[in-house]
Structure prediction request, 136 residues.
Amino acid sequence: MKIRYDLIKNNVAEIDRSFEFEESSDLYHVKEFKGRLEKVGKQYILSGDLSYSLTSKCDRCLESATVVGEATISQVISNVEIVSDVVESDGLTDEEIDVYVTAIDHFDIDEFLREEVLLLTPGKKLCSEECDGINY
Ligand SMILES: [Zn+2]
Prediction:
């Protein structure tokens, strides 16, 4: 879903998203993201709660494995590159502030959540911590 900046009313857009996507034959499910995009000065703050699951093959036994997780999102969003002298007036430097830069006219919430879930899911997927692997 794309959120067009010029359609945001009263500086706040409420967000409630749920969708699935595939990535290298794994099935990811953004079960729920409830939050808001709020305009603060020239930037936007995205905040909310994310729950997700990943269905994949266990790295040890190749049985189907599902990983579930939750995360609290708090992210500065900007549709313009923030130059360091502007940021420094807040007492923060470039390194201390993590800004997600979007297209000039819209924020693609699905693309953002997709990247977030990919970052959150572990590299190793196991059906359980005690998995012994394939029994010969
Ligand atoms: Zn396993």
